[in-house]
Amino acid sequence: MNGPGRDTVEVRGLKVWAHVGVLERERLHGQWFRLDFRLRSDLSAAAQGDDLSLSQDYGLAIQALQRQARTIRCLTIEHYSERILDLLEELYGPLAMEVQLTKCLAPVAGFSGEVAVSRSRRWP
Fold it and tell me: Which residues have C-beta within 8 Å of that of residue 49, sequence separation ≥ 6?
């Protein structure tokens, strides 16, 4: 059940093209990632007042994460997820947050699934 301190703003299924991976071709050519994140915040004032300024504007995060994906170059999805958490904290301050970053097609011989990391800050 939600309530003060238990409410969340969630974004699921944000697809971004980023140059992240241990293999040089991953960093050179890029690949698809799926990003899901949650921000914990008391949403009661925004709900009662119908006022976006009292909530966490997820549109800001989506646009900022899309810009970040176009410029990032790193080896691991762990590092990329850390940069995502940094960006979300820059936008919204020190909220409890959780991120799941999924590499949509990991280049591992004989494997056609996904690989993901889940990270959080101040998440109980």
Answer: none
